[in-house]
Design brief:
Length: 342
C-alpha cells in the first residue's frame, strides 16, 4: 500500500499552485498587452514571423512614402508646365493674332506686344526653375542647381542657358552634351526589385524614372526646316519680340515664327500627357502597396495579437483555477492524532 506523507502532499500542492499562478500571470499579461507573446522564447516561430512582418511592413511603407514624394515632385512639374502652356496659349491666340491684324502694324502697338513676349521669357524661365524641397524639378540628374538662366549678350541679344549650355546656338560638342542631358534619368525604388545591369546601370523596368530634363519641355537647338528659328519656346518668344520691334515689320516672317511658337507649345501638351500617364502608374502602384499593407497588418494581427474574447475567457478560467487552488489549500492538512489530545 502506497503511503502518502504530509510533506509530499504539501510539496505537490506547492508545485501545482505555482503552475496555477504562472498560468494566471500569463493569461493576465495577454489581456493587458493584447499580444500572444512578449518574449521570443514563448513562441520562437511567432517571434521570427513577427520580425519578418515588421521588416516587410516598414519596407512597404517606405515605398508608399516614395510614391507620395514622387507624386508631389511630378505635381510641381505639372504645375510649372501648365503655367507656361497657359501663358504661351494666351500670347499666341491673343497678342500673336492681334499683331497680324493690319490695324496693329504701327510700331508703337507692336512694341507693346513685344514687351509682353519679353516679359513672358522671364516668367517662363522662372517657371522652369520650379523646385520641390531642395531639388529643381527640371534639373535632370543635377537637381541641386538652378537649371535655366537668361543671359543678355554683348550685342544685346538674349541667350537661354541650361546648366551652363546655350540651348539655341551651341557648338557641336555642346550639342552632344545637350543631347546627353536630355536623356538623363533619375530612378526611385518603388518595390519592383531594383536591379542593375552588367554596366552598373539601373534596368528601367525595375524602378521608376522621376527625371524630366527641362530642355525636353521647352526644347533646344534650331529647327531643321529653318536653322534661323529656335526650337526653344522661350528663345522663340524673344525672336518674336525682335521681329515685332523692327521698323520694317515682316508679317510673313512673323507668321512663320508664330507657327513655330505653336509647334513648341504642342511639346508642352505632350509632356503634360506624359506626366498624366506617370501619375496613373503611381496611383495604381500605391493602391497595390496599400492593399499589401492591409494584408501584412492582417498577418501581423494573426501572429502577434490575441483574440480578446478568447484571452479574457482564458484569464477568467485561470483566475477561477487559482482561487480554487487557494481554497483547496486550506483543507490540505487533515486532522491528526494531536488535534484530539486534550
Amino acid at each position: 500500500m502506497l503511503r502518502i506523507t504530509t510533506s509530499a502532499l504539501i510539496r505537490n500542492y506547492k508545485s501545482n499552485l505555482g503552475k496555477s499562478i504562472s498560468n494566471l500571470d500569463l493569461a493576465r499579461t495577454k489581456v493587458m498587452t493584447q499580444r500572444n507573446f512578449t518574449k521570443g522564447y514563448q513562441d520562437p516561430t511567432g517571434a521570427v514571423r513577427e520580425s519578418a512582418l515588421n521588416w516587410k511592413y516598414a519596407k512597404n511603407q517606405d515605398y508608399i512614402d516614395a510614391i507620395d514624394d514622387a507624386q508631389s515632385f511630378q505635381n510641381a512639374q505639372e504645375d510649372a508646365i501648365t503655367q507656361i502652356n497657359t501663358q504661351a496659349r494666351y500670347l499666341s491666340k491673343q497678342y500673336g493674332l492681334e499683331a497680324m491684324n493690319g490695324t496693329n502694324w504701327t510700331q508703337d502697338v507692336r512694341k507693346t506686344y513685344a514687351a509682353a513676349f519679353r516679359e513672358a521669357m522671364k516668367s517662363m524661365t522662372m517657371s522652369m526653375n520650379a523646385s520641390y524641397g531642395d531639388k529643381f524639378v527640371f534639373g535632370g540628374a543635377d537637381g541641386g542647381h538652378t537649371p535655366f538662366e537668361l543671359k543678355t549678350n554683348d550685342d544685346g541679344s538674349t541667350s537661354l542657358l541650361y546648366r551652363g549650355v546655350d540651348v539655341s546656338h551651341p557648338e557641336e560638342a555642346l550639342k552632344e552634351k545637350l543631347d546627353q542631358m536630355s536623356r538623363e534619368e533619375v530612378y526611385t525604388d518603388l518595390g519592383f526589385g531594383l536591379t542593375l545591369d552588367e554596366d552598373g546601370k539601373v534596368i528601367n523596368s525595375t524602378a521608376f524614372n522621376t527625371s524630366l530634363p527641362g530642355i525636353n519641355v521647352v526644347g533646344y537647338g534650331m529647327r531643321e526646316d529653318n536653322p534661323d528659328i529656335s526650337n526653344n519656346i522661350i528663345i522663340l518668344a524673344g525672336q518674336i519680340a525682335d521681329e515685332l520691334e523692327k521698323e520694317d515689320f515682316d508679317v510673313e516672317k512673323y507668321r512663320e515664327l508664330l507657327t513655330a511658337f505653336d509647334d513648341t507649345r504642342g511639346r508642352l501638351v505632350d509632356n503634360l500627357t506624359t506626366i498624366g500617364t506617370r501619375t496613373n502608374f503611381l496611383e495604381t502602384t500605391k493602391s497595390r502597396l496599400e492593399d499589401q499593407q492591409i494584408n501584412l497588418t492582417e498577418q501581423f494581427d494573426n501572429v502577434v495579437n490575441v483574440d480578446m474574447a478568447e484571452a479574457i475567457t482564458e484569464f477568467s478560467w485561470a483566475q477561477y483555477a487559482y482561487n480554487a487552488a487557494l481554497k483547496i489549500g486550506t483543507n490540505i492538512l487533515t486532522p491528526s492524532f494531536i488535534d484530539f489530545m486534550s
